[in-house]
Amino acid sequence: MADINLKYDGAIRAIEDMQAASTKIDGQLEDLQQQLAPFAQQFVGQAAHSYQQFQGQVNQLEAQMRASLAQGSQVLSEMIEGHQKSDAAAANQF
């Protein structure tokens, strides 16, 4: 069986970093959309349709990214919790 060495402080910082990155990216993408909105409102015809399709794809990818970061944070949190429980159970054997 492989040894597992989990540094709690580092793992917790990684969770916080993922959450901060997600928040920062969301804010930057929101700012970008607001900056593009006046320009995009001028699109007509096929250009408007193509931009809407493109924006839909961007929104979908953004949601997937958010979900991946949230899942990564959750998995790491569960690893920390499981490791702490296992460590406590082993310590209680003495």
From TrEMBL:
Gene3D superfamilies to which the protein is assigned, alphabetical: ESAT-6-like
InterPro entries in alphabetical order: ESAT-6-like_sf (IPR036689), T7SS_ESAT-6-like (IPR010310)
Keyword Zinc: no
Keywords, in A-Z order: Coiled coil
One Pfam family from the record: WXG100
Coiled coil, from the record: 15-71
Name of the protein in its database record: Proteins of 100 residues with WXG
